[in-house]
Amino acid sequence: MLKILVLHGPNLNMLGTREPGTYGSATLAHIETMLSAWGEANGAHIESFQSNDEAALVGRIQDAPAAGFGGIVINPAAFTHYSIALRDALLAAALPAVEVHISNVHKREAFRRHSVTAPACSGQIAGFGPHSYILGLEALKTILSANG
Ligand code: DQA
Known about the structure:
By secondary structure, the chain is α/β, with parallel strands linked by helices. Helix content is 38%, strand content 19%. β3, α4 and β4 form a beta-alpha-beta unit.
């Protein structure tokens, strides 16, 4: 069975109460329920992991190939904009990866327009609320089936 790792960076554990005008009212638990439902409907096992700690996220990316994951969907949150460590971990793991953002980062402050992690991914999806994660999973599924 296809295994997909979904990673969530810092402050995404606060979804639901965190800046609802920007991130909406869905909690991370709601999003994880959506991810599992997508997995069931698409014959994939989804593992979701959130951390405020860069090292923990780097560790999960490093371990992903040996743990049997076929690809990664990642919302690096603020790390998007400056974590060379996450970028390097994605390049080292060399699994297909899709970067997702809940908000449209291109419509916000200038510093959010730059992603250091997106160049280590197949592409980036931003601005569709929690549905960005589903679009990320769909994109990853397409990439993986094209890879055979
Ligand atoms: C975010 C956008 C980032 O700029 C921000 O730091 C986040 C969330 C998003 O999902 O819209 O924490 O990644």
